[in-house]
Amino acid sequence: MSGCEEVQKEPTEKRIEIKAGNDDGGVVVLNSLLPNLTAGFLNGGVGTEEGTILGVITAGENDVTSRALYRFDISEWNNTADMVFHLKCLYRHGNPGMIDIYVVDDFGPLPSVQEADPSDVSDIWNLSESGEKVGSISPSAGEWFEITISKSIIEVKKTSEGYLAFMIKLSDENIQTGNFYTFLNYEYAVSHNEHRPYLTKATL
Q1: Where are the domains of the chain?
Q2: Are 194 and 14 in contact (CB under 8 A)?
Q3: pLDDT per residue over 73-127, tens digit each?
Q4: Which of 6-15, 112-121, 165-174 is the most confident on average?
Q5: Cα–Cα–Cα angle for 137, 101, 41, nearest 5°?
Q6: What is the pLDDT of residue 11?
Q7: Handedness of CA 110, 117, 172, 35 (dihedral sign)
Q8: Architecture of domain 4-201
Q9: Taking a C-beta distance cutoff of 8 angstroms, is the pair 18, 197 a contact?
């Protein structure tokens, strides 16, 4: 398993940033229907200006679990080196615990507007089962952290169009509602003049 570590400042290496709002977001499922049915929502645009939620929350009258999704166009880079995923934890609510980071099969552009009614999102939700776990960490609010991805994993998971995709989930999702993180995403970065989530090449 590749390593990860928390860092105290934003790296300044040449980077590949999230290109568009529908290249990051989340998949949210209704807890009342788990584990037999994975019904919920995908979002990647409108309504995510305050970041992407990861964890267990109450939405309306329903408890839901959310996972974060990120995809990068790395077509301009070859596979000669490991890469580093840089992400900022904006907020930590309650005690959500550790997070697990996976490189997964590309899920494609996310919908810019969340649908009104829940639908079957099992294809996206289950991507972690076939993904490659590349790290676990307990992030701190307001801090950037780094996840290193080996070039061997990149070679397997990079699509023919040049995309590399990530899913982040709580290590333990069987927790009480109100325990969650909020992570940086494209919309938050644009509206708050922050760096977007990004990749760099690993240095020796």
Answers
A1: 4-201
A2: no
A3: 999 887 778 999 999 999 999 999 999 999 999 999 998 877 778 889 999 999 9
A4: 165-174
A5: 120
A6: 47
A7: negative
A8: Sandwich (2.60)
A9: yes
Rg over alpha carbons for the chain, rounded to the nearest Å, is 16
What are the two backbone dihedrals, phi and then psi, of residue 61, each rounded to the nearest 5 degrees? -105, 5
Residues belonging to the chain: 204
DSSP for the chain, written as a single string: ---EEE-SS---S--EE--SGGGEEEEEEEGGGTTT--EEEEESSTT-TT-EEEEEEEETTEEEEEEEEEEEE-TTS-SSS-EEEEEEEEEEES----EEEEEE----PPPSS--SS-EE-HHHHTHHHHSEEEEEE-PPTTEEEEEEE-HHHHHHH--TT-EEEEEEEES---S-TTEEEEE--HHHHHHHT-PPPEEEEPP-
* C-beta of residue 53 within 8 angstroms of C-beta of residue 169: no
Which tokens hold the place of 59? 């939405």
Above pLDDT 90, what percent of the chain? 75
Q: Convert the pLDDT of each residue in 133-159 to its tens digit.
A: 999 999 999 999 999 999 999 999 999
Residues 164/71, Cβ–Cβ less than 8 Å: yes
